Amino acid sequence: MGIDPSTKYKVAFWVSVQLASLHLLQGASMYTWMFCCYTLSGSINHMMTLAMHELSHNLGARGMVKNRVLAIAANLPMGIPAAMSFKRYHMEHHKFQGEDIIDVDIPTSLEGWFFHSTPRKVLWCFLQPLFYSLRPLFVNPKPPTKWEYINIAAILLFDSAIVYTWGIGGLLYLVVGTLLGMGLHPVAGHFIAEHYVMNLGQETYSYYGPLNWLTFNVGYHNEHHDFANISGKHLPDVRALAPEYYDDIPHYHSWIKVIWDYITNDKISPYSRVKRVTLEESEREELKRKGGLVK
Predict the structure, then answer these.
(1) Within its chain, how far is the Cα of 244 from the centroid?
(2) Which alpha helices (DSSP H) does the chain contain, by range?
């Protein structure tokens, strides 16, 4: 139940759809371009971030190198290098969930202080890709690794090919799609749904709605954290095998409603995360000295 060999075909298919949409949108009106950028490019590129998530756990093929290469391939249409850095930080999120400084999935105190009202939380949702990408550099910076340089080089080459073939508009379609798809977008609801405390006493939540079809079942998040070495394809099987552990705890059926509740509920903000300090300063320094769990 670990490896899902179909992941590489899904990545190849959706990257091809992105390239085809670039070609078909040549000469389209600005309104058509923006609509497709939000709905199509945004959805596909967010889907590719979740392919990267799947591959960060080495669940797309046998062998770490194959998974890293596939993750970089999934990263290509996003226009921004992310796959290899994401893997490094995501492994720490699993091992040290909620740990101050180490788990960079936790919003900073500045975010919690400023983005507390409804209008500011709307802005925070739009800016999620900015916080998601820059927060690690300020909270828990790591020296770049060989694979991160390979990732950057691959994206630069791909971006250059896009500009050469379809012009700067083609590259903007991909990059803006990435930013919109990770911002105030239905699929991006999983960012909030996974670990924001909507019910006191529960830190992680699953989502059992149709958008799992587009997101490698990342909505099965309690199941994923319990069994991180099981591919997204088989996480529904985990729930089916042990319904007594998953069916009776709070969970979601709509990521759109999660976003709405987050924005409109005055009791919920970027502060609504469980933060803990379990590591000694010496342990954090040793982890930092080694460059993290994964290089």
Answers:
(1) 28
(2) 7-24, 30-36, 42-56, 64-75, 83-95, 109-114, 118-126, 128-139, 146-181, 189-195, 221-226, 235-241, 243-246, 255-264, 281-289
What amino acid occupies position 208? Answer: Y
Q: How far, in Å, are 33, 99, 247 from residue 281 at the CA level?
A: 50, 12, 39
Of residues 51, 41, 279, the one with CA closest to residue 172: 41
Query: Tens of pLDDT along 226-264?
Result: 999 999 999 999 999 999 999 999 999 999 999 999 999
DSSP, collapsed to helix, strand or coil, labels residue 242 as coil
The amino acid at residue 293 is L
Q: Distance between CA atoms of 1 and 203, rounded to whole angstroms? A: 26
Q: Which residues of 63-80 are buried (b: 16+ CB within 10 A; e: fewer)?
A: eeeebbbbbbbbbbbbbe
CA-to-CA distance for 237 and 155, rounded, in angstroms?
A: 36
117: region left, alpha or beta (phi > 0 left; psi from -120 to 50 alpha): beta
Instruction: Characterise 275 by phi-psi region: left (phi > 0), alpha (psi -120 to 50), beta (else).
Output: beta
Rounded-to-integer distance, Cα 257 and Cα 36, Å: 23
pTM of the model: 0.94
